[in-house]
Amino acid sequence: MNRSVFLYSNDLLNYRFNADHPFNQVRLKLTLDLLKSLGAINDEQIIPPRAASDEELLLIHDPGYIQAVKLAGKGELAEDKAENYGLGTEDTPIFPQMHEASSLLVGGALTAVDYVMEGKADHALHLGGGLHHGFRGKASGFCIYNDSSVAIKYLREKYNARVLYVDTDAHHGDGVQWAFYDDPDVCTLSIHETGRYLFPGTGNVNERGHSHGYGYSFNIPVDAFTEDESWLNAYRASFKEVVEFFKPDVIFTQNGADAHYLDPLTHLSATMRIYKEIPKLAHELAHQYCNGKWIAVGGGGYDLWRVVPRAWAHIWMEMTENSNCCGALPDEWVKEWQEKAPVPLPTAWEDPANLYAPIPRKSEITEKNLNTLEKALYPLRSRA
Fold first, then answer.
1. How would you classify residue 16: left for phi > 0, otherwise alpha for psi between -120 and 50, otherwise beta?
2. CA torsion sign, 62 to 51 to 166 to 113?
3. What is the DSSP string of 331-357?
4. Which of 10, 36, 213, 235 could be bridged to 182 by S-S, CB 3.0 to 4.6 A?
């Protein structure tokens, strides 16, 4: 048995809005090529995703919406109807065969679920997924279908599993949170940049769940310009306390790589250091609480060349317990991709110490994040 599987096929690159859109799945190929050039992955570990069926999409999505996506991909959806479904917007433009491309992303997450829950692998990585903004009947924030929500519902219905969803994208995981807001068997934890200046504007500490799901939603909105130490403190404390409280059967992580200082769409000041630590803790806690059951998906990440491949490669290296991820990056990878890249590629796993000038409000930001963390975890800490 392969302890870890990596979901990939070139067909995942078909999820492509247009040449100028910031969401570009070439980052999947960049990451896989980096892993191959390290000798860190073999063909047996790479599993092609299947497409999700309409029946599976209906676990979360409205039938009218699925039909609208199909029509849009054929150029047959009227403009006013498209707008009602969040399609044809600047964020989520219409592109040919969008239903087929989106269904494959969802099917990749379902394939990952089946591998882990049927004992064919301990861990599964599906970097093509993590589209956490999609709603029941509406596209949002580059996300057409919400693969994570469908996969979690599938975990509930097929395997009766209690699922802990941990989202470290700089944008709040709103679509997943709202899909399970009243479900006490799904716990969501999102650590993200405060919505004060960033899409989608949700994810406040007082969003704690509804009805039977009250107390199973946790949000830690960190301040703009948050750096590594403060970010990691929030992540470690919240993940450890929430997993101990919830005691899941499986951990499902969304691994957006857009909290990095170089990301063009966000305002955080993290470095590659957090991307080495994020999967390390997820891996440790999956073995401690879930017999190793850990499913990881991708997400945001818009510095395609300098940040995402290194950040995402760390997840696979951690899953496979490969420590060969420090020092220089492989020359062949840098040379192969440099001619295609519009920026100089990094030559090392780590970021340079002088990546950015000192943040003037560092102590104020750190204190503010500590207070936010305390508020977010107060229900758990007040029980102790």
1. beta
2. positive
3. HHHHHHHHTT-SSPPPSBSSPPTTSSP
4. 213
pLDDT band at 383 (very low <50, low <70, confident <90, very high): confident
Token representation of residue 22:
């910031």
Let me know: does 159 contact 117? Beta carbons within 8 Å.
Answer: yes
Q: Which of 314, 316, 340 is nearest to 329 (CA)?
A: 314
Q: Using DSSP, state whether 6 is helix, strand or coil.
A: strand
Active site residues: 133
Q: Environment class of residue 118 by beta-carbon count within 10 Å: exposed (0-12), middle (13-18) or buried (19+)? A: exposed
194-244 pLDDT tens trace? 999 999 999 999 999 999 999 999 999 999 999 999 999 999 999 999 999
Q: How many CB atoms lie within 10 A of CB 85?
A: 23
Residue (of 47, 31, 66, 255) closest to 145 by Cα position: 66
Q: What letters, b where the CB count within 10 A reaches 16 and e where it falls short, cover 310-336?
A: bbbbbbbbbbbebeebeeebbeebbee
Instruction: Please indicate, yes or no, whether the overall pTM of this predicted structure exceeds 0.85.
Output: yes
Render the burial of 284-304: b for 16+ CB within 10 Å, e for the rest: ebbeebbebbbbbbbbbbbbb
Q: What stretches of 128-255 show up as alpha helix (H) in DSSP?
A: 147-159, 174-179, 228-246
Q: 197: which DSSP letter?
A: S
> Strands, DSSP E only, in the chain?
4-7, 46-47, 123-126, 163-167, 186-193, 217-222, 250-254, 294-297
Q: Which of 129, 48, 54, 174 is nearest to 298 (CA)?
A: 129
Q: Which two tokens stand for residue 136?
A: 């029941």
Residue 238 and residue 219: Cα distance in Å, rounded?
9
User: 87 exposed, middle or buried (CB, 10 Å; 0-12, 13-18, 19+)?
Assistant: buried
Given the structure tokens 């009243």, which residue do they identify? 182
Contact 109, 126 (CB under 8 A): yes
pLDDT tens, position by position, 241-286: 999 999 999 999 999 999 999 999 999 999 999 999 999 999 999 9
- DSSP annotation of 153: H
What phi and psi, each to the nearest 5 degrees, are found at residue 169? -65, 150
| Residue 208: C-alpha distances to residues 183, 231, 380 (Å) | 11, 21, 12
